[in-house]
UniProtKB/TrEMBL annotation:
Organism in which the protein naturally occurs: Cercophora newfieldiana
Bias (Basic and acidic residues): 41-55, 63-82, 149-159, 555-566
Name used for this protein in its record: UV-endonuclease UvdE-domain-containing protein
Cell division among keywords: no
Composition-biased stretches (Acidic residues): 587-601
Length: 654
């Protein structure tokens, strides 16, 4: 049969016949366009739409269908443009974060290849042993990560690094080539452990007449069934989301069933109202915390800087007046009635000595927010004067003298109200008491002495570590004078490092509680900066039998008598019929917790229903059970149920 010639071009495919090698024209089979099913076409269309939508979301562009649903009025189009720009900015921010993450990974790869040149000290006698050891250890960690199947497991560079890595036995062998090499952490631990012992004062400020306080959070109230705390916050994305009305505006918001509908027109006021509502809820809980403190003899508290979220933010910020004036005035009224002192401590990023203008602008804006919050409390004259804002000097930026000059310049431009409240505190990173005391005396700024920070950062040429030297009259009198000149009641900070910490960085961490009182005046306002907050104050009260120590009693593990609790149903008898099932007589009925309590016994006590008024809720119950022993914070929550197998493994099942 003659062979059919292969078409050489598109034109040949369109011909109706094909000429064979013998010259005979034969008809060709027309090319048939394959038919695609409607289902396949619909699936491809959906995939294309989904891909286009995902790409649009990444770049901050709304899908076409969603845009068509919006109104065509000029106002709506303008709002659409604004939202599109906002989404584009968010998309670019996400892209930037991904780029930074990828750059960090690439940098690790490069380091893995570069470190090979510095691994063997025999090639270069000038290598610093400390740095060399750090390089070896970092490389060993990278190899371990490779062996565990990390992100570089398939990377050629990492494989080469793994093959050329020194044997770990050579690194750790005391007789090997790296016997003299020590890591920087090891050197710091040895140096920290070998430092001169602290010299502490034996003086105790007893009998105590001052006020003990804690910072921001009450652990007992925070863990209540209805939590009481003053630091509710949100993400900025939530503020933007809540600019849109709820799906059902007649119903309250629900986490899943009634969320903001982003297809509806956005309103800036709605987003601001959302974040301001969080601030109002925080401020209202301060009243409960103050009355709780009064009941247990605590008359000093630091207000959380997060009470009004994003109040000092450049875009989402807002003034507290007039929407928060009433609730803050109520807080101030209760504080004045009880004679409690309230202070604030702006965050670590509020720095008036920074060389960056944007940091200075943000710092001043943050100080204005804190000043407005304290001013709206409407406290009596002396309490208002004592309502201070504590600030750290911040970074050194390579030159302490230049940083102090910038601080002087920026401090001069502050409002009189902020200057009246601003107080400096020595820190645990760079600025000692001897660094700050001269400028505090120069600018008439009170100085807060933090004993814990002083034990980490101090001028070794003028004093020793410990509480003895810093409490001598030549220093303590100068610090006290910075307060008396402005008519403000002096306050101090006290905390202790965790047990077993020897390096400077590790000693910065505060212990859960403190063991003693510092050598301060017996009428000092002393802020206890400890992890366990009010429990650390109770611990001091119990240790030294301070006024009010007898008020707080131990809590019942996993039980709270100051919250509403329904009574469970309790059967009167345990008669069982066939099959092990309980048979109830016709006249038999269940009794509630009240009847069980009337019958007496431990079961009756545990089954009794509890009804607590709103005023007494969270206040410790009739027996004032609010103290939990060190390390038993889990007692504040109901005990978790365990299966029989797990309980038997823990030894709970007899």
């Amino acid at each position: 049969m003659p062979r059919r010639s292969k078409p050489t071009s598109g034109a040949a495919n369109d011909a109706e016949s094909t000429t064979t090698s013998s010259g005979i024209a034969t008809p060709t089979r027309p090319e048939v366009q394959l038919r695609r099913s409607n289902r396949r076409l619909a699936q491809d269309t959906r995939e294309e739409d989904n891909t286009r939508e995902i790409q649009g979301r990444v770049m901050g562009i709304r899908p076409e269908g969603e845009e068509r649903r919006r109104s065509n009025t000029s106002e709506d189009r303008q709002e659409t443009v604004k939202e599109g720009v906002q989404l584009a900015i968010e998309g670019l921010a996400r892209m930037e974060r991904r780029l930074q993450k990828a750059t960090k990974k690439q940098k690790t790869k490069v380091e893995a290849s570069v470190f090979r040149e510095a691994l063997d000290p025999r090639h270069d006698d000038d290598h610093d042993p400390v740095i060399l050891r750090e390089v070896i250890l970092r490389d060993a960690e990278l190899v371990d990560h490779i062996e565990e199947g990390g992100p570089f497991a398939k990377d050629d560079t990492a494989k080469k690094a793994k093959r050329s890595t020194l044997n770990s036995e050579d690194v750790n062998n005391p007789d090997g080539p790296y016997a003299e090499v020590k890591s920087e952490d090891t050197v710091e631990i040895e140096r920290g452990a070998a430092r001169a012992p602290p010299v502490n004062s034996s003086y105790l400020p007893l009998p105590w007449r001052g006020r003990l306080g804690y910072a921001c959070l009450n652990t007992y109230l925070r863990s209540a069934k209805v939590p009481v705390f003053s630091s509710r916050t949100c993400r900025m994305a939530s503020i933007v989301e809540h600019r849109h009305p709820l799906a059902d505006e007649t119903q309250p918001e629900h986490p899943t069933k009634n969320r903001p509908d982003q297809t509806k027109k956005a309103n800036m006021e709605l987003g601001q109202k959302f974040v301001q509502g969080l601030g109002l809820a925080n401020a209202r809980d301060i009243i409960k915390m103050l009355r709780w403190n009064e009941k247990y003899g605590i008359k000093f508290m630091r207000l959380s800087s997060e009470m009004f979220p994003f109040a000092s933010h450049p875009e989402h910020g807002y003034q507290l007046a007039p929407f928060a004036s009433e609730v803050l005035a109520e807080v101030g009224k209760v504080a004045a009635e009880l004679g409690h002192r309230l202070t604030t401590h702006p965050g670590q990023f509020t720095q008036l000595g920074s060389p960056r203008k944007e940091v200075i602008t943000a710092s001043i804006r943050d100080l204005e927010y804190h000043d407005e919050m304290l001013s709206l409390l409407r406290l009596p004259e002396q309490q208002n004067r004592d309502a201070i804002m504590i600030l750290h000097m911040g970074g050194v930026y390579g030159d302490k003298a230049a940083t102090l000059d910038r601080f002087r310049e920026n401090y001069a431009g502050l409002s009189a109200s902020i200057k009246a409240r601003l107080v400096l505190e020595n820190d645990d990173v760079a600025w000692s008491v001897h660094d700050l005391l001269p400028i505090c005396e120069e600018l008439n700024i009170p100085l807060v002495l933090d004993y814990h920070h002083h034990n980490i950062i101090f001028d070794s040429e003028q004093c020793r570590e410990g509480t003895l030297d810093i409490s001598q009259p030549e220093i303590s009198d100068r610090i006290a004078a910075t307060w008396s000149r402005k008519g403000i009641k002096q306050k101090m900070h006290y905390s202790e490092p965790c047990d077993g910490m020897v390096t400077r960085r590790d000693r910065r961490k505060h212990s859960p509680r403190v063991r003693t009182l510092p050598p301060c005046s017996p009428d000092m306002d002393l802020m206890i900066e400890a992890k366990d907050k009010e429990q650390a104050v109770f611990e001091l009260m119990r240790t030294f039998k301070l006024p009010g120590f007898e008020r707080a009693n131990d809590i019942i593990p996993h039980e709270r008598t100051d919250e509403n609790r329904p009574a469970p149903k309790v059967a009167k008898s345990k008669n069982k019929g066939k099959g092990g099932k309980r048979k109830r007589a016709p006249e038999e009925d269940e009794m509630d917790g009240a009847e069980a309590a009337d019958e007496g016994g431990e079961a009756g006590i545990l089954c009794a229903a509890i009804e607590v008024s709103e005023e007494d809720r969270g206040m410790g119950g009739p027996e004032n059970r609010v103290y939990w022993p060190l390390g038993n914070e889990d007692w504040l929550k109901p005990k978790k149920r365990e299966g029989k197998a797990k309980a038997a493994a823990n030894g709970d099942d007899d």
